[in-house]
């Protein structure tokens, strides 16, 4: 799974990297510990203009057909293996795919002494794009729109497997247009683990366990890198 991540590059730099045409969200802030239900940046293709937009969406998908948000599951992850067939995800996968800019993410390794947190990043430390899907939910009676997203996960590659058996789907830059539906292509073909050499991992301190802790110190290694 993916239950915590970091996006800390300047938002304007992220906007330019992903080619979004709208202004960067004024209230977007760097974060080293984004948790479920919090807002995070997502890049989407505007359904009418075809232009790329970058906006803040809430992490935890609320399908548009949800009757009562109080009873909504709000999943933070969707399995790649069942994405196209799941009633909760299949419509969004078909037409509402997004890219989630991420600089690092966290997973917890189960050990005899408890869960040990690890950070993951690209080997070149560049911002990566997680595969996501998004939805709009209209609040009954008010018309207020809530936009949410979930991150797609797949089986872990050889690098990540010693820590966790799942990992996020990372969309390579050359495939962004396919994932966003800007060009013809099969989005399902992109739902696979990244190459082993693309990412690395390292153990970090227990402070990341609490979303209240948020700063670059969360990424300080407490042990050796996992190649």
Structure description:
8% of the residues lie in helices and 34% in strands. It is mainly beta. It has one domain (5-219): SOS response associated peptidase-like (hypothetical protein yedk fold, Alpha-Beta Complex). The strands form two sheets. The chain has a five-stranded antiparallel β-sheet, with no helix packed on it. The longest helix has 8 residues, at 11-18. The model has no long low-confidence stretch (mean pLDDT 95).
The CATH topology is given as hypothetical protein yedk fold
CATH homologous superfamily identity = SOS response associated peptidase-like
Strand order of the largest sheet: 2-1-7-8-12
The termini sit apart by 20 Å
CATH class annotation: Alpha Beta
SSE string, helices as H and strands as E: EHEEEEHEEEEEEHE
Name given to the CATH architecture: Alpha-Beta Complex
**What is the rounded Rg?**
17 Å
Note the total helix count: 3
